[in-house]
Design a protein that fits this description.
This protein is of the alpha+beta class. It has helices at about 70-80, 105-120, 130-135, 140-145, 180-185, 205-215, 220-230, 230-240, 265-275, and strands spanning about 5-20, 30-45, 50-55, 90-95, 150-155, 160, 170-175, 245-250, 255-260, 280-285. It folds into two domains: about 5-160, 2-Layer Sandwich (Ribosomal Protein S5, domain 2); about 170-285, GHMP kinase, C-terminal domain (Alpha-Beta Plaits, 2-Layer Sandwich), CATH 3.30.70.890. Helices cover about 30% and strands about 30% of the residues. The longest helix is centred in the middle third of the chain and has 15 residues, at about 105-120. The relative contact order is 0.18.
């Protein structure tokens, strides 16, 4: 392995997130529709004498490269599951393009990208079911990020049902660059036993169709996140007023807000205008990855 191998870690978006119950162990049962935007962190690997991780990019300072980093945990777990499959050492470089603690999958997406990259590099067979089982040990979001395609997700995140059809749509992402701690949001959640997702159209093929269905859904973490970061509500209201915006909603536990668009031109124009309005915020426009 002389060359550098890379793998993208696309941003995860919770288009809908319903908290349907709290289990005896304290974890929450969820029902979600997730999609992934074509904007990503990038992970690279080259053979080395030992395992190392270097983090660079615009959001590197917020992440660090300690042993607790999910990429290194993914590497340790892969080596333990398939001893000898990887080179004796890997020099990993993570280019952190996405904000941290932003409701975009973050470290989970990076860990899933690491598993995909190791499976490409390794000697042997690495069945998806085995990689999925390994992903479940690394965090609730890692299994869905392993697929990185539109899916209905249930339970703690371990039930992932990829969609066969998904419309060509675009998103504008806005983050006020205030980190949001998921545990803090859940602590402020008042209602933990909410209705699940409504029946989903099948096939789901048009942006307007997706928007109509999403109108019947929610992100149950939005209200507690707004209580912590009021700017989330302001961003959501502003996005909802933009021509062509089908839906505006917070992703995950925040604080990124997405606007759903059917047109690339409208999404990029909206992003341009929002950068002028909020020069200190992170603003991006990207297509959603298809089924």
């Amino acid at each position: 392995m002389a060359e550098t191998v890379s793998e993208a870690a696309p941003a995860k978006l919770n288009l809908a997130l319903h908290v349907t119950g709290r289990r005896a162990d304290g974890y929450h049962s969820l029902e979600m529709l997730v999609a992934f935007a074509d904007i990503a962190d990038e992970l690279e690997a080259t053979a080395s004498s030992r395992d190392t991780l270097t983090v660079n990019g615009p959001f590197a300072a917020a992440l660090g490269n300690s042993e607790s980093n999910l990429v290194l945990r993914a590497l340790a777990a892969f080596r333990a599951r398939w001893p000898g499959a990887l080179p004796g050492g890997l020099a990993l470089r993570l280019h952190k393009n996405l904000p941290v603690a932003a409701g975009l999958g973050g470290g989970s997406a990076d860990a899933a990208a690491a598993l995909r990259l190791f499976a490409r590099l390794g000697q042997g067979e690495f069945p998806l079911a085995a990689l999925f089982a390994l992903a479940t040990t690394l965090g609730a979001d890692v299994p869905m990020c392993l697929y990185s395609q539109p899916a209905e997700v249930r339970g703690l995140g371990e039930i992932v049902l990829p969609l066969q059809h998904f419309p060509a749509a675009h998103v504008v992402l806005v983050n006020p660059l205030v980190p949001v701690v998921t545990a803090d949001v859940f602590r402020r959640l008042e209602q933990r036993d909410n209705p699940g997702l409504p029946p989903r159209p099948d096939p789901l093929t048009r942006p307007a169709q997706l928007g109509l269905w999403l109108d019947e859904t929610r992100n149950d973490l939005e209200a507690p996140a707004i209580a912590l970061v009021p700017a989330i509500a302001v961003i959501k209201q502003r996005l909802a007023l933009i021509d062509g915006c089908i839906l505006a909603r917070m992703s995950g536990s925040g604080g990124t807000v997405f606007g759903l668009f059917g047109s690339s031109a409208q999404a990029h124009q909206a992003a341009h205008d929002l950068r002028l309005q909020w020069p200190d915020y992170w603003v991006a426009a990207a297509p959603l990855l298809g089924a």
